[in-house]
Amino acid sequence: FGNIRGIRDTRYSGAALTWWWYAYEVGIFSRKSENSSLDKEISSKCPYVTRLVDDHDCWKHNMSESMPFKEGLEMEEHNEPYDEVWDKLNTLDVKEYSRILKNGKTALKYRDSMAKYALEMTGKEYEFEGLKCFTMNIPFKGSPWFMDKINEYDAVITYYFNSNTSTWKYSIYTNKGHINVSNIAKKYNGGGYPKAAVFFTKE
User: Whose CA is closest to 186, among 198, 168, 173?
Assistant: First the structure.
């Protein structure tokens, strides 16, 4: 991919990098070199909603509203760029944003109640790549389902079998500053961010 123009930086989500690249291309601001002002521009000029998405996708957890916003957004039709919700959010519709946030907070309460049962029923300790991990056999769930376990262990891992592709999917997360789980995922032809990564196996 070395000859393809673009910005590559695993510290930021695809949403944030896409905004930054587009803003430069259409002249919202200029830069002296490829990455010279990336940190400054994303933190100061990137739309608030995009920064919320970035905070959650990269598992930074620096913004208290990113998680409830993500959960609330999942309840909306939002997968297409012309879905109505994006028009409202892009015009900084405070009422719409507040509604999504409120729904997200309700969804989080339900998630936490279900997570307790999931931990009891499917959770177990496991040593992986020299790390003390807590694992759960559960699909489509992220690190919040581990609740305080993510702080008690080096990493937490969800895994499940996809019968359509005959593969196992593993999602690995950490809160430890000295651990980069994307490096572990790369060993298994996967990848991701330093704090959240994914890989697949046949067994």
Answer: 198
Q: Over its length of 203 residues, how does the chain's per-residue pLDDT go in tens digits?
A: 556 667 778 788 888 888 888 877 766 655 544 445 667 767 777 888 888 989 988 888 899 999 999 999 888 888 777 788 888 887 777 888 899 999 999 999 999 999 999 999 999 999 999 999 999 999 988 888 999 999 999 999 999 999 999 999 999 999 998 999 999 999 999 999 899 999 999 97
How far apart CA 158 and CA 139 sit, in angstroms, is 7
Distance CA 118, CA 132 (A): 19
Q: How far apart are CA 153 and CA 162, in angstroms?
A: 26
Check: CB of residue 20 under 8 Å from CB of residue 38.
Answer: yes
Query: In sequence order, what E strands does 60-194 have?
Result: 123-128, 131-137, 155-162, 167-173, 191-192
Question: Which residues touch 87 (CB under 8 Å, ≥6 apart)?
Answer: none
Lookup result for tokens 């999931």:
118
Cβ count near 188 (within 10 Å): 15
Distance, C-alpha 69 to centroid of its chain: 12
